[in-house]
Amino acid sequence: MNIKRRVAVRLGIPESDSPDVRRLDLFSGMDDAHFSTLMRGAYVQNFPPQIELITEGEPSDFLHVVLSGSVDLFSVWNGRETSMATARPVSTFILAASIKSAPYLMSARTLEKSRIALIPSQDVRNIFDVDNFFARAIVAELAQCYRSVVKTKKELKLRTSQERLANYLLRLQARVGAGSQFDLEFEKRRLASYLGMTPENLSRAFRGLQAYGVTVQGNRVNISDQQDLERFAKPNPLIDDPDS
Question: What is the DSSP annotation of 10-27?
Answer without folding.
Answer: -----TTTHHHHHHSHHH
